[in-house]
Request: fold
Amino acid sequence: MKSRHKKLLVIVLALAGIGIAAALILNAFQSNLVFFFTPTQVDKGEAPTGRAFRIGGLVEKGSLKREADGLTSHFVVTDTAKSMNVVYKGILPDLFKEGKGVVAEGKLGSDGLFTATQVLAKHDENYMPPEAASAIEQAQKAQKTLQQ
Amino acid sequence: MIPEIGNFALIVALLLALTQAILPIIGAQRGNLTLMAVARPAAQGQFVFVGIAFACLAYSFITNDFSVVNVAQNSFSQLPKIYCFAATWGSHEGSMLLWALILGFWTTAVSVFSRHLPDDMVARVIGIMGLVSAGFLSFLLTTSNPFLRLLPAAAEGRDLNPLLQDPGMVFHPPMLYMGYVGFSVAFAFALAALLSGRLDAAWARWSRPWTTVAWSLLSVGIVMGSWWAYNELGWGGWWFWDPTENASFMPWLAGTALIHSLAVTEKRGAFKAWTVLLAITAFSLSLLGTFLVRSGVLSSVHAFATDPARGAFILGFLAVVIGGSLALFAWRAPKMLTGGRFTWFSREALLLANNVVLLAAMGSVLLGTLYPLLMDALGMGKISVGPPYFNAVFVPLMAPALFLMGVGPLARWNGSSLPDMVARLKWALAVSVATGILLPLTLNGFNPWATIGIALSIWIALTVLIGFRERLKYTQGGLLSRLSNLPRGFWGMQLAHFGIALGVAGITVVANYQTERDVRMNVGDHTQLAGYTFTFQGIKERQGPNYRAAEGTVEVSKEGKKLFVLNPEKRIYNASGMPMTEAAINPNLFRDVYVALGEPLDDKAEIWVVRIFYKPFINWLWIGGLMLAVGGLLAASDRRYRIGVKAPAPVPAGVATQGV
Reply:
């Protein structure tokens, strides 16, 4: 092989490698994006079924119930307009509290029950997870426009 | 009075930084020695004044001066003194001051250890670092002044975020910043070379030890952060692909590419433009990391306040630094590039491949970190990118890089023969693949991920040993003296690569063979995990200096023999009322036993959810990471960096000389 051909081969191989890497990254990126929906959006049927997504809002007061195993908990997440039932098996984060903001990631069942695989509450007492805050804000804005 | 002295010192430091930035660079362009001579004293003076400012702030924290806003917001009278001191950098303002202090430290270090460099180079390097200092100091003074007074003074502080009240807080941020800011030296050297028009091997050799030290310290910082998260967060994880972690990981990936590319530039004179771009990239990513973590863009522990003025300043600063340096590159670089040639199977080519993979990895982290922020900022919906994405991308990207890591150090500069390489490495390859397949089979059945990880780990370890053997083949004398005669650069590289082998082993084993259990436990209940029996013996109340804790007692035994007792805690901090989980860990070289308290299930707090982990080989991860850093420091101390200004003697073609 002439050195010019060799050089060409190296360049082609390098481009192929970069191409494969880029395809891999973008493919993984697309299939692992997790979208966020507010309970109102979920109620309208905008959220996908069969694909994981995130919801956010407040944990409704008095809604937290535990099953006898101590690990499975049921609670209601609300954006003050609409609510949804959530079930989660595992230890809830330290800052999970009724009346406080929460974000949960999981899948929506056909029965409307959201099975969370991860529950996030933020690291600071006075701090609302931004997603939860925006869910409530959107819901309240929507309510105001309805009233007018 | 003390905070006012601090504020004044900061203003003096800014003026000195401007002097340090402007005069020496003008002097260097005009060949004026008097102006160039300003660089060293100005830099050292700037460091002294930033040091005074920092000492004033630390003093305010230690003496609980709640008339300073920053202290009132981030400290507490009952806070242990060591955390009062660490709280100095626990806030946004304080951490920016720490940034400026560390930048002053690096600049002063350059001014002291640059006696053998040409005056104009030193003047330009220190000048450019002065520009960065001036940027940070004006940021502090205009948007983030840590010395603002609170009138009337608060009676009590709001306490440091309990998550930060950990020994990790004392060491992790300064170490991380030493790394971040250290890349400013590589950046300054790159820009100085562009300004001077001399982009040669000597430049790469001056820049190399600084870059390697910065990279090593960044590695230590990241390893400590990971260890801290593992110990403190109570989730048993050691890496979460959290944006704040990614913010430190991106400069590390770019820095890793940079130290390898610098090796090629120094040894072969090739990849000059690439190396300069990497130096700019590494420092820009450090700034981006600071921006992401400190401006409140990310909502997490690290984000302290959301203030648009700060965000705008840092974004503008970032634009000036990146845009300015790229413009300089576009203007100057084409004139001085006389690229070195290289053949397709040589150490240069393999290092280039490593660079490409590292940058692809960096790009994937950047995409996953910034894309959600961008979508949010543009109002296009909220999305998140979690660990599944990063894991899906990282394993296939890193596997070829780790494989090449075994080949690269054994290849010769300027061309190796592939059949010869196959002959040298076939046994190592066979052994590592065989072990990779067989070991998981004996443990738990076939597992492709475990096979890849174990095979790569053993592959790297074996090639390190082969590297030693080949280096020693032609030397005379006793083994010990032959080993100690090898250059430190070679030792450093081997140690760092061996650290990677240990780290890969640790990650693979813990990811594939850890076991965990969340279990409801009443006093006297038992549970089993990984052959250990855990007995819950109840909860005691304990009073800490600034918190109340429910301290659990869990006795761990194996085959009826009592081994040790673990005391996990659930704390409630007095000032904030914030709960915190404090895990209890029994470590040894081959496994950690990790117990954390979940939540009480009854009103009397006798029944608890307890989380138990068995983490095999997790400590290999930290040991490997530290070895990586020690390797870097060792390589940077190689004596050839300390001798003479002269360019290195030309390397005869086809001869492997000094290690990378």
